[in-house]
Amino acid sequence: MDDPELERIRQQRLAQLQAQHGGTGDPNQAKAQEEKMRAMEDAKHSILAQVLSQDARARLNTIKLSKPEKGTMVENMICRMAQVGQVSGKISENELIELLQSVNQQMPKTTSTVKFDRRRAALDSDDDDF
Predict the structure, then answer these.
(1) Which domains does the chain have, with CATH numbers?
(2) Could you report how far apart the first and last alpha carbons of the chain are, in Å?
(3) What is the pLDDT of residues 57-113, one digit of tens each?
(4) Which residues pair with 52 in a beta bridge?
């Protein structure tokens, strides 16, 4: 079962995966990176809790559920605004709506189309009676 070629391939694949993720396979480094990400998320949530009103926070969470990339982008934008000092007081729901409208105007429109391909001849259930 100990095939040297198989072991060499496994080692190459492991090195390739580690290179892709930027890690050396050190579990302590992975833990440190995870802790850093968790700390950044906690800092972001505390900033948003200080800057947004409850209604605005609920609206942002709803947006994040429907469009995660857009919600994350707006969260990051609000955090940057708070860090720079552009936010004075809490952002109300109406102010958040205005901010979202300005973001929507800046973003390119993406149109999605749904195309129905009905092939009645192949799926006709009337032919089953024969």
Answers:
(1) 53-105 (1.10.8.140)
(2) 57
(3) 999 999 999 988 889 999 999 999 888 888 888 889 999 999 999 888 887 777 778
(4) 91
Residue 1 has pLDDT above 60, yes or no: no
Angle formed at CA 123 by CA 118 and CA 124, multiple of 5 degrees: 110
At 86, phi and psi to the nearest 5?
-80, -15
Highest mean pLDDT, choosing among 11-15, 29-33, 62-66, 111-115: 62-66
Q: What's the DSSP call for residue 130?
A: -
Question: What is the Cα gyration radius of the chain?
Answer: 25
Amino acid at 51: V
The pTM of this model reads 0.59
From the list 50, 47, 52, the residue with the least C-alpha distance to 92 is 52
Which residues does residue 91 pair with via DSSP β-bridges, in sequence order? 52
> Which class for 93: exposed (0-12), middle (13-18), buried (19 or more C-beta within 10 A)?
middle
Half-sphere exposure of 39 toward its Cβ, with a 13 Å CA cutoff?
Answer: 6
